[in-house]
Amino acid sequence: MAQVRKRAGTDLDPTLAEAFADCAATLVRDVDELDAYEAALAAEPDPVRLVDPVQLEAVARTFGHLEDLKRPWLQGHSAAVADLATASVQHLGLPGAGEDVLLAGHLHDLGRVAVSSRIWDKPGPLSVSEREQAQLHPYHSERVLARVPALAEVATLAGQHHERSDGTGYHRGATAAQLSMPSRVLATADAFRNLVEDRPYRDGLPAEEAATRLRTEVRTGRLDGDAVAAVLASAGQGSGVRRSRPADLTSRQVEVLRLVARGLSNRQVADRLVISTRTAEHHVQDVYTKIGVSTRAGAALFAMEHGLLDEDG
After folding, report:
1. What is the greatest pairwise CA distance in the chain?
2. Is the pLDDT of residue 311 over 80?
3. Cα 153 from Cα 278, distance rounded (Å)
């Protein structure tokens, strides 16, 4: 209640804050004993909506997109990991693992929401305490998913996506003997995507350099050699095949969309592309019209759904 009063009139609507204060004692009664998961299920209105296996991938993809929207530099990460890891287990001849790996790819970073944005957005190196908090996000992912019985295997995979074969990963420090091949593939796909994507403290690496880094990890025993080979093969480097662009976007419009999705203002887009601000505004509006959205969040979701956030998209 002290926080509600302190924030009233700033980030909290004062009228709502006052209304909450009037009935707070009733609202928070027994909150310490409340199981939020069970309470949420109990509060769902009838008719209860059930998700069948066919719909489950779409639900997982949506949750991954929503988590990625937490930070501009994460947009598209979960879907990219899911697609790359799934292609990799198929490349290894493990089709039976494909569904769990696909779902785990979409949901592996769900636990990021349990860690302060201040840590994720920090432009420099993390302190020891901050690093320990960040390294707990696989644990949080696993705990959230484990509450759903149908996602038990997915929860295990998600919780292991930062483990390494030599025991130097986190959060459990598992070794190769404790990690299944699907788990090793998911960890490798996540590592590859993390290397090629921009972060607040560095630019993404070219795919060739990222591949070299992963091969080095194999030689040091941190990553599985078969998993790395499958992921690099599935990444399609040097295929020379260019995907068709959705909504008839031009190459320039894809550049603009990518920058808008990353959170750049019209002026920043203009500076990046060396064009006038007015021209950048026209480009942004043309992109919005073509893809049928009116907000930057909508543009970011469109870019994620159509794989346009990579430089070769």
Report:
1. 65
2. no
3. 51
CA angle 188, 194, 197 (to 5 degrees): 140
Q: Tell me how many degrees the CA angle 307-311-313 measures, rounded to the nearest 5.
A: 35
**What DSSP line would sit under the chain, residue for residue?**
-HHHHHHBTTTB-HHHHHHHHHHHHHHTTTGGG--HHHHHHHHPPSSPP---HHHHHHHHHHHHHHHHTTSGGGTTHHHHHHHHHHHHHHHTT-GGGHHHHHHHHHHTTGGGGGS-HHHHT-SSPPPHHHHHHHTTHHHHHHHHHHTSGGGHHHHHHHHTTT--TBS-SSSS--BGGG--HHHHHHHHHHHHHHHHS-BTTBPPPPHHHHHHHHHHHHHTTSS-HHHHHHHHHHTTTT----PPPGGG--HHHHHHHHHHHTT--HHHHHHHHT--HHHHHHHHHHHHHHHT--SHHHHHHHHHHTT-SSTT-
- 243 pLDDT exceeds 70? no
User: Span 74-95, mean pLDDT?
Assistant: 91
CA distance 83 to 67: 17
Report the length, in residues, of the chain.
313
| Domains of the chain with CATH codes | 2-43 (no CATH), 53-234 (1.10.3210.10), 248-305 (1.10.10.10)
State the Cα–Cα distance between residues 301 and 68, nearest whole angstrom.
10
Alpha carbon distance 307, 181 (integer Å): 26
Residue 300 has pLDDT above 60, yes or no: yes
- Model pLDDT for residues 152-178, shown as the tens digit of each residue: 999 999 999 999 999 999 999 999 889
Residue 240 in this model has a pLDDT that exceeds 50: no
